[in-house]
Write a structure and sequence with these properties.
By secondary structure, the protein is mainly alpha-helical. It is built from eight helices and four strands. About 20% of the residues are buried.
Length: about 260
């Protein structure tokens, strides 16, 4: 991670983010007026934390939020699993202030690169007239510790990992009343599939699909909603499981 301050060897226009965006825009153009579904999945921001120029040098440590950690999180009374995750190699690296000051600016550069290329997608949709009939969901599968809570990577249940962005654009006139608003009700990633199924008029397949469609929320309805969300973790492949001496079937964690 010491190389995060250096530009990628690949030019920006050939990077994963640029290439994926090119393919998405080409796909939409080829489809024309034919119905389509597109999963535009960006690899970045992700490690290895290497950004192409000029994004590698856009930010410095002074532009980043301070790392969120407390001395008590290193104390003798913390949960044994939390302690062993702090002993993972990536976590030990992010306990080094120099690592934090090097990686976080590069990570922000990678976020800005995604932001810029999503701007290309939005502009292409505008030119093609697709905003009038396209449901758009922008979200992520998880966050990244980047040193918060003395950890690296993505596991465990702190808000920096669990509270991912979730933006929903519903082109239906029924959603005009809520457009541009923020809804504080609990949403889970398992809600994405049922939302798409309802929007496209497909079988909701409730016998196999978890989650709930978010279209009623976007359209100003007031359905009875969930009071909690659930997250699960299987850490069977982590060294933390081995160091704790946990056998098969004893490497799961849950959050409510």
């Amino acid at each position: 991670m010491r190389n995060a301050r250096l530009p990628a060897r690949v030019k920006e226009e050939h990077s994963e983010t640029a290439y994926t965006t090119d393919q998405a825009i080409d796909f939409m153009a080829r489809k024309g007026e034919e119905p389509w579904v597109l999963h535009l999945s960006y690899v970045k921001p992700h490690w290895p934390y290497i950004a192409p120029a000029p994004y590698h040098a856009m930010y410095g440590p002074e532009h980043c939020l301070p790392v969120s950690r407390h001395a008590a999180e290193r104390g003798p009374d913390i949960h044994p699993l939390f302690r062993e995750f702090q002993n993972e190699e990536v976590a030990r690296n992010f306990q080094n202030d120099e690592c934090i000051a090097t990686v976080r600016p590069a990570y922000q550069g990678l976020i800005t690169q995604v932001d810029d290329h999503l701007g290309r997608v939005w502009a292409a949709m505008e030119a093609m007239g697709r905003w009038r009939d396209t449901l758009v969901i922008f979200t992520s599968d998880h966050g990244d510790y980047l040193g918060d809570h003395w950890l690296g990577e993505k596991e465990l249940f702190h808000d920096v990992i669990q509270r991912v962005p979730f933006l929903l654009y519903d082109p239906s006139p029924e959603a005009d009343a809520t457009r541009g608003t923020v809804d504080g009700r609990f949403v889970e990633l398992v809600d994405i599939v049922p939302t798409i199924l309802e929007a496209t008029g497909c079988d909701p397949a409730r016998h196999v699909v978890e989650g709930r469609s978010l279209l009623p929320l976007a359209r100003g309805q007031a359905p009875q909603w969930r009071e909690f969300v659930v997250s699960e973790l299987d850490f069977s492949y982590r060294g933390a499981r081995r160091r704790l001496g946990l056998g098969a079937g004893h490497h799961h964690a849950w959050m409510v």
